């Protein structure tokens, strides 16, 4: 996720890229959005969702621009090295300058200054052909402090991701299995509120069941952190298919209930107290900047890549609005679950047992496939952060310490709290804020500076962001830092009232 230069992989069309990007963005965060909508009010939620979608699109174009600048610098360095090698060969073989000038046109183009090559119609120096991950871009454009801050931010974000995943699976299992026993069968979503101390099975309380499931989840998936795993193509297809079946089912079931006059929701227009969590959930739900190099680089034709990304954001905005509005009008605010799928395990909503269990357990299947991959990514980022040129880690540090510091903190967080809305909100509001706003803005600023220094002020990046004026970078930075202050102040004030 935040590594160095990697293989581009198999190329695909712009429209396939659009689907991949849609699948990447619409994930676990979307399942917590209906509750956040209900808590903040429909009007405030819609306005904030649209604004944050716009901000996320802007910073996405900043990352694409930085990717193009990184590709240009890599090409330039290779061409400079080739020129030096050619000059060394010429001097060693005694070839004169006049002989060099008589070489064929291709060789002359290779040894000319880089801007001269561009003017003669050769492939654009800013073409995105190599996958340069965000970590490598940070190393190219930031100083040492900036690189360390980047890795700190992405590590905190990945820890938050893992904590959300570690809590979401046991929460879903408890809600489904505890409600499927005794007198509580099919009672999810009917207004019944359970406490952690309520009984689940016999003498076992719900909080005990949650922790048992968390322990089982950790024992089953935790060992993968000590090895290398990757998401296969077929696994990706399977999880994407399950996700879309689940989302479409939830929207259709909610619409059917509303059309039959069974809607119970009466959402308010605005509740300022819910903005903090809504902000974090929206930032988390629009997160894709850290994965853009993997998505954009393999697209075969990138001429209109910014328009393609804009279309994706419009579709995602419409989808989030449809999912959330059907939810808040179908269910009462106090019955909406942190994980929206759990509202559909009630017999009154759907009497087909298979669909109830499919939706209730949907997060378990999809999250369980993602958890090891995120964990390995976090482990590798820890290794990169402490890596020294030419150095190697002792076996114990490499195989035991790094996987342990990756796995233990998120499991401890999940052990202490299962409040998914707060976990998503805090992860998005802090680490997500840094990755989605601050890092892309600094990458755009520093890459523009470096591009002018290396290629001259007249050089134009073909993938330059539509928001090319410095005002937009300053605006994003002010917005990002203001969000840090707002969210922190909101948390402090909320805690002081308790």
Structural class call reads: mainly alpha
Helix-strand topology string: EHHHHHHEHHEEHHHHHHHHH
| Average pLDDT, all residues | 82
Number of alpha- plus pi-helical segments: 17
- Strand order across the biggest sheet? 1-2
By CATH's scheme, which homologous superfamily applies? Amino acid/polyamine transporter I
In summary, what is this structure?
With 498 residues, this protein is an all-alpha fold. Helix content is 69%, strand content 2%.
Characterization of this structure:
By secondary structure, this protein is mainly alpha-helical. The chain has one domain (27-78, 126-183, 205-496): Amino acid/polyamine transporter I, CATH 1.20.1740.10. It contains 17 helices and four strands. It has helices at residues 14-25, 28-40, 42-93, 97-100, 105-111, 114-119, 134-141, 144-179, 206-221, 233-259, 275-285, 292-296, 305-330, 353-386, 395-416, 420-455, 470-497, and strands at 5-6, 131-132, 199-201, 204-205. The strands form two sheets. The protein has a two-stranded antiparallel sheet. Strands 3-4 form a two-stranded antiparallel ribbon. β3 and β4 (204-205) form a beta hairpin. α8 (144-179) crosses α9 (206-221). 42% of the residues are buried. Keywords: Glycoprotein, Membrane, Transmembrane, Transmembrane helix. It is a multi-pass membrane protein. Its main location: membrane.
